[in-house]
Specification:
heterodimer; A: 567 residues; mainly alpha; Sodium/glucose cotransporter; 71% helix; B: mainly alpha; 3 helices; elongated
């Protein structure tokens, strides 16, 4: 059977499974819609969190990014997993004890103010929309390559599937589909990794494989270091970013991850505080399987690519080369007209253009794995993109129906109407996300990386102070969030989009002006400290929060009597 | 009485957090970033040690940290009779 038939079978089977689960677990109340009725077991919640967490970026792009960045790619590995530790230790148990539906809910009540809630809603929507557009794009890429439909139809098919189970099932449907999606995506990621690791090193465990020797007896990493420097790239295990920048980016990603609303909300779905702690542990364990294998795949893929392509005649390239050329994600331009593919760091000589997104998807083909493995990777990429998209859509719809409509504009709304509003806003969100997936406004990819900076600069300090500093008041929190997010947006516009210096072209030249040499990706870390400082300073000069709020803080610190999530 | 109990529970909790987050910082920002180059002088198999911490070791420690935290807190909950609620 060909790859394409296998792909159709795999994708059809997994989609049928997701839809089946959605019908079986559809939501009947707002509570089921927002937090799955609060009765999800820690293991199921852990798997759902892991699937929610690992987006198209983790599955499709991350190993590819690391492949081209070498050591510098560690920022994603440490950033996205280390943030999880912060989430598990500093946020999850207390937010579960607090027992509300959404992050703006916490901010609104803890800071006893509608404006705090509105600022939080704005931040949640901004973070979620930038993120979800990237997911729909990932769906489009997978469809266009493996099913040979164009990206537009790919995105529309993806939209319909997500709509179906997010709108019907709400959090309950999403949770149980995510459990299935976790299984699909981890299997799809690990099978080719194990195959290739065994093929290259004789060791089937990829995490160990990339530290062992290849067929010629030299260590893979040494060999890759040698090849990289030969072609003019930085040494693979050293990277080229400054230590301070690596530090800042890692920190911004960690703190940003801990502040992502679609992940925080998952901890509202378990019964008890100690279940929240445990499921955070399980989730990170399940995430770590993929995250420790990704750097191994990065090494195998880079080696395979260099050895198959570099200096070889274009005419003798295998089938996968022309398949990917068709998608525009791989390109060859014969600058010196010798028919050979020159691959080098120097843009004047380099003739090969490889999009980092194809490394994971193309890797099984480059390594000549069986057709069913290649098809499996396609199904896994879709599972990763759809599960994250669904989680984000839920945050968007609950922000609108619960935080805006119910808590601000129309408090008298009935449960039934709130549920209808939630479903309608989910539909609206899917359509907007799909639009940006089809017409990515150039900057989507850039903004997705910055979504973490935005979350770090806004939510994280407000939530931490809300739990650990009883005297933090609304004036301080609102001022901190506003200053933090505006500063982050300003830095992004200035150094990522060159808005004040003549547009995109100016961006490269502005690099020398970066504050302290910190890139826009790492600036969330700085903005976070500014947020903390402003919050603390303002709260010193304004009134203490009311007694009732201070008592509320006392109660969320102890786990007893967590009760169920309520309005 | 109950209030005093809650205060000692919270203090213990903060102490655990302090210790665990110090380890968290040491393996990632410490071994994986700040001292990466010094550690790269040593090797485990084909891995330079600093590089290994950045791409593998820190993640393993993160998972362990959360499970240690879960155990410590469950024990603390039992001592303060918060466990069965």
């Amino acid at each position: 059977m060909t790859v394409q038939i296998w792909t159709y079978i795999m994708v059809a089977l997994t989609f049928a499974l997701y839809i089946g689960i959605a019908i079986w677990s559809r939501a009947g109340s707002t509570k089921e819609f927002y937090v799955a009725g609060g009765g999800v077991s820690p293991l199921a919640n852990g798997m759902a969190t892991a699937a929610d967490w690992m987006s198209a970026a983790s599955f499709i792009s991350m190993a590819g990014l690391i492949s081209f960045m070498g050591y510098d790619g560690s920022v994603y590995l440490m950033g996205w997993t280390g943030g999880y530790v912060l989430l598990a230790l500093l946020l999850a148990p207390y937010l579960r004890k607090f027992g509300k539906f959404t992050v703006p809910d916490f901010i609104g009540e803890r800071y006893y103010s509608k404006s705090a809630r509105l600022v939080a809603v704005f931040c949640a929507l901004l973070v979620s929309f930038t993120y979800v557009a990237g997911q729909m794009r990932g769906v489009g890429v997978v469809f266009s390559r493996f099913l040979e439909v164009d990206i537009t139809s790919g995105v529309i098919i993806g939209m319909i599937i997500v709509l179906f189970y997010a709108v019907l099932g709400g959090m309950k449907g999403i949770t149980y589909t995510q459990v299935a999606q976790y299984c699909v995506l981890i299997f799809a990621f690990m099978v080719p990794a194990i195959f290739i690791s065994f093929q290259v090193t004789g060791n089937p465990i990829p995490q160990l494989g990339f530290g062992s020797t290849g067929a010629d007896g030299t260590y893979l990493l040494d060999k890759l270091n040698g090849l990289s420097t030969e072609l003019g790239f930085a040494e693979y295990t050293s990277g080229s970013k400054s230590t301070l920048d690596v530090f800042a980016i890692t920190a911004a990603l960690m703190v940003g991850t801990a502040g992502l609303p679609h992940v925080i909300v998952r901890f509202f779905t378990v019964k008890k505080v100690r279940d929240a702690r445990k499921s955070a542990g399980l989730a990170l364990l399940l995430i770590a399987i993929l995250y420790t294998a990704a750097p191994a795949i990065a090494v195998f893929a880079r080696l395979n690519l260099i050895q198959t392509v570099s200096g070889q005649p274009y005419a003798q390239m295998p089938q996968w080369f022309s398949n990917w050329e068709k998608t525009g994600l791989l390109g060859f331009e014969d600058k010196n007209a010798d028919g050979l593919i020159q691959y080098a760091a120097d843009p004047a000589i380099n003739e090969l253009r490889v999009d980092q997104d194809i490394m994971v998807l193309a890797n099984p083909e480059i390594a000549n794995l069986p057709a069913w493995v290649i098809a499996l990777v396609a199904a896994g990429g879709l599972a990763a993109a759809l599960s994250t998209a669904a989680g984000l859509l839920l945050v968007i719809s609950s922000s609108v129906s619960h935080d805006l409509i119910k808590k601000v504009f129309k408090p008298s709304i009935s449960e039934k109407h709130e549920l209808i509003a939630a479903r309608l806003s989910a539909v609206g969100a899917v359509v907007i996300a799909g639009y940006f997936g089809i017409n990515p406004p150039g900057f989507v990819a850039a903004v997705v990386a910055l979504a973490f900076g935005l979350a770090a600069a806004s939510f994280f300090p407000a939530i931490i102070l809300g739990i650990f500093y009883k005297k933090m008041n609304k004036e301080g929190a609102v001022a901190g969030m506003v200053v933090g997010i505006l500063l982050m947006i300003f830095y992004m516009l200035k150094f990522k989009f060159g808005l004040f210096d003549g547009g995109k072209e100016a961006v490269a030249g502005l690099k020398s002006q970066w504050w302290l040499g910190i890139s826009p990706e790492g600036f969330g870390f700085v903005a976070m400290w500014v947020n903390f400082a402003v919050s603390l300073a303002v709260s010193r000069f304004t009134q203490d929060p009311p007694k009732a709020v201070q008592e509320l803080v006392e109660t969320i610190r102890i786990p007893s009597g967590a009760g169920e999530a309520t309005h | 009485m109950k209030n005093k109990d809650a205060t000692s529970y919270w203090k213990k909790n903060l102490r655990y957090l302090g210790i665990l987050l110090t380890i968290w910082f040491a393996v990632s920002f410490g071994a994986g970033i700040l001292f990466k180059e010094a550690l790269d002088a040593f090797h485990i198999g084909g891995f330079p040690v600093g590089f290994w911490f950045a791409q593998q070791g820190s993640i393993y420690v993160f998972v362990l940290l959360i499970f240690v935290y879960v155990r410590l807190m469950n024990k603390l909950d039992k001592e303060h009779n918060y466990y069965n609620d």
